[in-house]
Design goal:
This protein has ten helices and six strands. By secondary structure, the protein is of the alpha/beta class. The protein has a six-stranded parallel sheet, sandwiched between helices.
Amino acid sequence: MAKLRLLIGDDHTLMRQGLRKILEERPDWEVVAEAGDGRTAVQQALALQPHVAVLDIGMPQLNGIEATAQIVRRMPSVQVLILSMHEDEAYVTRAVRAGARGYLLKDSAGADLIVAVAAVAAGKSYFSPPVAKVVLDEYVRRLADKGIVDRYDALSEREREIFQLVAEGRSTKEVAGLLSVSPATVETHRAHILQKLDIHNTAELVLYAVRRGVIA
């Protein structure tokens, strides 16, 4: 069985060494490269094609969010997990919109790194619990300020089914098989879901599902 190939991007050598030690405790995982800045991380991702890139948000030359955007645009198969000290909604939203699959706070990296990497490697998402709570609180506050009810309530029963299955990381083909409908029907419902919720990609959909408590 092929090993899970990992890239670590962080401008602190000791942090990279610590992350490598934790990750390589898994015998079926391999750190294929380290990068001390965002530009190098992008170059290594393109050259080595890791399954998962673990990127610090505050790298020099090219920050982790911009590096994520470049990697995901040029190599969509690479799943990106952002490491950050920031719990602010602005950072999390920018990371998700750039294409990151997960957002892990550095102070919990030691305990949660393995779980987070395993999740994004499987095509799912991972957000540190404090991050999910902060984003949810801010989201609810903004809705209240605008006098808007939760858009989730506008989804039909079938759309809610598809919403959860997509958030769980299932492919269009898998969803179609589970619901006994065509892949084209699933894609049509998915487009309506994104429009109704005012979100733009699957990563944002997953974050919304975490906020809403649809998935853990």
